[in-house]
């Protein structure tokens, strides 16, 4: 039974998350407590879920991209562009607090995000450019576009309706948590209740064979990159809404790395085909909990990347079948019989030669 549990892909991410939560509980009394105030839930665990929602959204979109044997390095730039467009539109409006103004800002940001995803999809699917190169173009230019939109300034807005997305509550829970949960359920239904999941795995395992089998692999790749960009766009709106400002320099900085780490921790194969949405959720929670732990301990934020790397290496090694097999082989190596070591084998009798 223990060996069966050890082979479960999600076992080690769950253990890592529990260990981090236990460490925080030891360092901070009352860390796991959740209180109700004015009908809303508050607590460190709620903060982890809310602050990790943007990373989770980006990681969910990244999961589908990686499952198709691709990668998207431009999600951080899309996050910055989305927040910059929304805040610029609201700040320039005659009625920043108007619901119509907020909805139009959200629509503009998401439309541009979808267009950026379509650009990535065109480079990868239509032109056949390697995904890491195709998305690196937008990663490099995208933050410059965000700086152009904000004119290099931090744009602050005062709009209560816009504040709801990142810092508001609904039915006692943060709206950011509910939005990320809704996206997770939507992707789960599309990939598990329709043929999309099977087609996605086929494209990730062998794109050429799937195309010859009649699968519209290019269309699937297009759609996946658009969806990933939309997830990044929503994440950018969450971040801008939470702080009521657009900071093109820092919004979404390194979020592409956090998303990729979350996907890898969750057990999705970088070679494509095999993926786990539940594992991605666990990976995103591990990344956010680790960030919270670093702040709790008092370590400089710049060192967070080092700890993230150590956690990722540890979890990935524990998930590796070859590593577990090597470790198990060393522990269960059969003992050498003592007779074979102490007593040499007797030489066979040599036939006697008759003397004349």
UniProtKB/TrEMBL annotation:
GO terms for cellular component: plasma membrane. Residues 333-356 are annotated as: Disordered. It is found in: Cell membrane. CDD domains: TM_PBP1_transp_AraH_like (cd06579). It is a multi-pass membrane protein. GO terms for molecular function: transmembrane transporter activity. The chain crosses the membrane at residues 41-66, 73-92, 98-119, 131-149, 169-190, 220-239, 251-272, 279-299, 305-323. Signal peptide: none annotated. Pfam families: BPD_transp_2. Keywords: Cell membrane, Membrane, Transmembrane, Transmembrane helix. This is Sugar ABC transporter permease. It comes from Mycolicibacterium goodii (Mycobacterium goodii).
């Amino acid at each position: 039974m223990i060996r069966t549990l050890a082979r479960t892909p999600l076992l080690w991410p769950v253990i890592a998350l529990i260990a981090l939560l236990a460490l925080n509980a030891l360092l901070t009394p009352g860390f796991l407590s959740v209180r109700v105030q004015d009908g809303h839930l508050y607590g460190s665990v709620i903060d982890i879920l809310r602050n990790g929602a943007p990373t989770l959204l980006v990681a969910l979109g990244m999961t589908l991209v990686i499952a198709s044997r691709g990668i998207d390095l431009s999600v951080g730039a899309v996050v910055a562009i989305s927040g910059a467009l929304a805040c610029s539109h609201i700040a320039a409006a005659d009625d920043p607090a108007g619901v119509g103004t907020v909805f139009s800002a959200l629509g503009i940001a998401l439309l541009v995000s979808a267009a950026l995803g379509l650009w990535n999809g065109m480079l990868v699917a239509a032109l056949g450019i390697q995904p890491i190169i195709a998305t690196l173009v937008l990663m490099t230019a995208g933050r410059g576009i965000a700086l152009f939109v904000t004119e290099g300034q931090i744009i602050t807005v005062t709009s209560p309706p816009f504040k709801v997305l990142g810092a508001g509550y609904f039915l006692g829970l943060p709206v950011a948590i509910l939005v990320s949960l809704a996206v997770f359920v939507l992707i789960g239904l599309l990939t598990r209740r329709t043929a999309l999941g099977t087609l996605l795995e086929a494209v990730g395992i062998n794109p050429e064979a799937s195309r010859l089998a009649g699968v519209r692999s290019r269309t699937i790749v297009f759609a996946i990159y658009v969806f990933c960009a939309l997830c990044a766009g929503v994440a950018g709106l969450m971040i801008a809404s939470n702080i009521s400002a657009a900071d093109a320099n820092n919004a979404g900085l390194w979020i592409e790395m956090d998303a990729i780490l979350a996907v890898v921790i969750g057990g999705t194969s970088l070679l494509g085909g095999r993926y786990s949405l539940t594992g991605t959720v666990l990976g995103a929670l591990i990344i956010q909990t680790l960030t919270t732990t670093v702040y709790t301990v008092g370590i400089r934020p710049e060192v967070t990347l080092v700890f993230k790397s150590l956690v990722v290496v540890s979890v990935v090694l524990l998930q590796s079948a070859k590593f577990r097999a090597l470790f198990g082989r060393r522990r269960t190596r059969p003992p050498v019989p003592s007779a074979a070591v102490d007593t040499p084998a007797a030489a066979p009798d040599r036939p006697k030669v008759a003397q004349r």
